[in-house]
Design a protein that fits this description.
Elements: H1 2-23, E1 39-42, E2 47-51, E3 60-65, E4 69-76, E5 79-84, E6 87-92, E7 96-98, H2 99-110, H3 140-154, H4 159-174, H5 182-186, H6 193-197, H7 199-206, H8 210-220, E8 232-234, E9 240-242, E10 245-247
Antiparallel strand pairs: 1-4, 1-7, 2-3, 4-5, 5-6, 8-10, 9-10
């Protein structure tokens, strides 16, 4: 009888222990346990485009807000293959920082909250207020002028190239080395050739393309693909090359 009771108590103890184990929630890794070794963060002012291939002319499949994080899957021709949730694609290597640098950037932009990753194209980027330039109130005439100069200087370039030209203009407006209004910057003597040759006036007269208007709106909303650079020229050279232009 004593043996039966002992065996029963042993079984009851095992079941109780199993019940206790099942009742305790399994905790996910904490922020402190997050593995940054294969992670990268967007080192940009607003967001980095995620593209379907390792080429600036391939379609956009998502966007990575400033400081947001992706997992690096591989590298190809100056691009990193990345993934985040259901979004996967390629980001230019110069737009990312890695591992501990990625952690530091993420925390400086997003604080100690949940990890922020890639977002679909039809959403507003979750950009920290200090990471992007503040949106600018703009008149119809300024929008038309910005779209026109973008078409003159980057009409055949990619979206990033168009944004780059507009961002140069916005950087100059904020700089104490240049005039502080849109028209003064664009028409400053010796700066933008289309303003002097009549090409800009021609585009203004007929209206810029929809793509250039879209880029102009994004620029005024704070989009920036070239950082604080103030100049650009056609062709390659020292600086950030986007398509057929180099920004420096």
């Amino acid at each position: 009888m004593k043996q039966k009771i002992k065996k029963l108590l042993t079984c009851v103890g095992a079941v109780g222990a199993l019940t206790m184990m099942l009742s305790v929630p399994v905790l996910a890794d904490t922020k402190e346990d997050y593995d940054w070794s294969d992670k990268a963060a967007a080192d940009v002012n607003t967001y980095a485009n995620i593209r379907s291939g390792a080429d600036i002319n391939t379609e956009r499949v998502g966007m990575l807000p400033a400081g947001a994080v992706v997992t690096v899957e591989g590298e190809e021709n100056g691009w990193f293959q990345v993934s985040s949730g259901e979004i996967s694609g390629y980001i230019r290597e110069d737009l990312l920082v890695h591992a501990e640098e990625a952690k530091a950037l993420f925390e400086s932009v997003h604080g100690e909250g949940e990890i922020v990753g890639a977002q679909p194209l039809n959403t507003e980027p979750q950009v920290h207020q200090q990471a992007a330039s503040a949106p600018v109130s703009v008149s119809d005439s300024d929008l038309a002028l910005m779209a026109a100069i973008i078409e003159c200087e980057a009409g055949g370039e990619s979206y990033e190239g168009k944004i780059g030209v507009g961002a140069v203009i916005m950087n100059r407006i904020r700089s104490n080395k240049f005039p502080n209004t849109l028209s003064e910057v664009i028409y400053q003597s010796g700066q933008f050739t289309p303003a002097a040759t009549g090409k800009l006036a021609s585009v203004l007269a007929r209206g810029a393309s929809q793509a250039c208007y879209d880029a102009a709106r994004d620029v005024f909303a704070g989009a920036n693909t070239i950082g604080d650079r103030l100049f650009f020229h056609a062709g390659s050279g020292n600086g950030l090359t986007i398509g057929n232009q180099t920004f420096y």
